[in-house]
Amino acid sequence: MTDRLGQFARENRREPTEPELRLWRHLSGSQLGGFKFRRQYKTNGRILDLYCPAVALGIEIDGHTHDAEEDAASDAMLAGKGLAALRFTNTDVMENMEGVLLTILAAARARPPRWAGRPHPNPSPEGEGL
């Protein structure tokens, strides 16, 4: 399962949807409030479209095929693990980028830092983010 999940995440990184790509352009390189995000992040048996590890904030960009009950159960499971999830529709991202970015920034700022006063448990080899 984990291997299939990893392969799926890699495929999604290589071929993102247009809304994911547009949002990533605003989040990459710690552009939004200095928060670093990752794309197609595997956690707890699922893949988050975008994830900020410093504050355990996941972002999902959903098309019209998502099941609301399944999403609610998934979000509850993530919350039980200390992760918060924000959901936006493709339309939100394509037509209201400013509102999406403001919502993400407010949520990231409201979350407690995961490593307060401690070094990141997995620093990047290039020293980025230190």
Can you describe this structure?
The structure is a single chain. The chain is of the alpha+beta class and 130 residues long. The chain has one domain (2-110): VSR Endonuclease (Endonuclease, Chain A). Helix content is 43%, strand content 19%. It has five helices and four strands. Strands 1-2-3-4 form a four-stranded mixed sheet, with helices on both faces. A hairpin with a 2-residue loop joins β1 and β2. The longest helix has 14 residues, at 97-110. The chain is globular and about 35 Å long. The N and C termini lie far apart (33 Å). The mean pLDDT is 84.
At a glance:
The chain is an alpha+beta fold and 130 residues long.
